[in-house]
Design a protein that fits this description.
The protein is mainly beta and 93 residues long. The chain has one domain. It has no helices and six strands. The model has no long low-confidence stretch (mean pLDDT 76).
Length: 93
């Protein structure tokens, strides 16, 4: 078997900012592989995907008073991209 076929388009990973690495959360102990793109720096999204408005494409959960930077955004699940439903008049009855 070959590699899986990518359906859609390849976009930069918002969570690691295309580096493929994120902070380990232990200060100066370094970085770990990005859990979203698995170290590639890019992800595949459907053609209709748009940047997440809730996190502005960063994929990180923001609190009003504190920014942790380690929590994945609830709406886009850390990718920085969302697929909004479109109304197709052909499918409506």
């Amino acid at each position: 078997m070959g590699l899986p076929r990518v359906i859609g388009r390849t976009v930069p990973c918002g969570y690691c900012e295309t580096t493929g690495r994120v902070s380990s959360g232990y200060g100066s102990y370094g970085k770990t592989t990005c859990p979203i793109c698995l170290g590639r720096g890019k992800i595949s999204v459907p053609p209709t995907a748009q940047k997440c408005r809730g996190c502005n494409g960063t994929g990180k959960q923001r609190d009003r008073y504190l920014e942790t930077g380690f929590e994945k955004h609830n709406e886009c699940h850390g990718t920085g991209w969302v697929v909004r439903p479109t109304l197709n008049p052909k499918l409506q009855r």
